[in-house]
Design brief:
Blueprint lengths: L8 E6 L4 E7 L6 E4 L10 H7 L5 E4 L16 H15 L4 E6 L1 H12 L4 E7 L13 H16 L6 H8 L12 H10 E2 L6 E2 L3 H11 L2 H10 L4 E6 L13 H7 L6 E6 L6 H4 L3 H15 L3
Parallel strand pairs: 3-4, 3-5, 5-6, 6-9, 9-10
Antiparallel strand pairs: 1-2, 2-4, 7-8
């Protein structure tokens, strides 16, 4: 299995009225289903898949509106993504799997476990899935443009070549020099659609906007979390989006927002940010090892 040369199986599967692209890395036992973040793709899990090294199969989906999956008008939000994932699992004949979600994918994983409980034997949340406190009195749309403004601007840009896209990312703090490597380049390479010299990121802005607003509905998120019967393991990054920032999920937030979850454990992953927890080491190794142990504890 050589994830760096694209030898994972790639294909398409039916979701809930939309076709989803996927990547599949083989391994022993029942597949783990992997769900990515808000502007990402299934290739977000390339590092974790390599570090799994066949200890578990990994089925990673492009969520609707991202990657090579369909991009319908409207019909976004965590419940819709959960219906897509459940339909895709049905197509593969999968039930009772461990679900791992990173960032927004963690919110989708929680929705799947709450609303389609037969699909989830366990849920692993990676730096996402719990409500985050919003500044009081701030309009949600204004908050969206503040938090995701640079990402939305990137989605509208054209790049003449893949190397120019790499050059766009290299000076940004998301992937410091120590984190830059084949996994990041595989992720960024897949992120682009079209042909040179008019390459553009694949994620649809309408999908990003609709999904982000849905994650701000804290009461709906808490209701889903309280409905999850499967065990939940959360791995959180030591730092925020970028090095030197406070974590998105500090201990007070984790303690308060996880209280409604029946079976919840939390692990802090040192020396990671929101991005490098999945796409660089030590994050990818920590996630892979924790995933194998967690799947075993779930009987999978």
């Amino acid at each position: 299995m050589d994830v760096l040369t694209g030898r994972e199986a790639r294909g398409r599967v039916a979701g809930d009225g939309v076709e989803l692209a996927f990547g599949f890395w083989p391994g022993r036992g029942k597949p783990v289903v992997a769900l990515h973040g808000i502007t990402a793709s299934y290739v977000n899990f390339v590092g974790i898949a390599e570090r799994l090294a066949g200890r578990r199969p990994l089925l990673a989906l492009d969520l609707r509106g991202r990657g090579d999956s369909g991009k319908p008008e409207g019909q976004y939000g965590m419940a819709q993504h959960a219906r897509d994932v459940a339909a895709a699992m049905d197509a593969f004949g999968l039930d009772d799997c461990v679900i791992i979600g990173h960032s927004m994918g963690a919110f989708v994983a929680a929705a799947l476990a709450a609303e389609h409980p037969g699909k989830a034997a366990g849920v692993m949340l990676v730096d996402g899935g719990l409500p985050l406190p919003a500044p009081p009195g701030v309009d949600p749309v204004a908050l969206l443009d503040t938090v995701l403004g640079p990402q939305l601007a990137r989605l509208r840009q054209q790049f003449p070549s893949r190397e120019s896209y790499f050059d766009f990312w290299r000076p940004l703090p998301a992937f410091p020099a120590a984190a830059w490597g084949p996994w990041v380049e595989a992720y960024l390479d897949y992120d682009l659609g079209g042909t040179e010299p008019q390459l553009m990121p694949k994620a649809a802005e309408a999908a990003v906007r609709g999904d982000y607003l849905d994650t701000l509905n804290a009461e709906a998120l808490r209701e889903r979390l309280s409905a999850i019967k499967a065990p939940v393991l959360m791995l959180s990054a030591q730092e925020g989006f970028y090095p030197g920032q406070p974590p998105l999920y500090g201990e007070p937030v984790v303690s308060a927002e996880s209280a409604a979850v029946a079976r919840f454990e939390h692990q802090l992953v040192p020396h990671t940010t929101h991005y490098t927890i999945a796409l660089a080491d030590p994050g990818a190794t920590s996630c892979a090892d924790a995933l194998v142990e967690f799947a075993g504890s779930c009987g999978k």
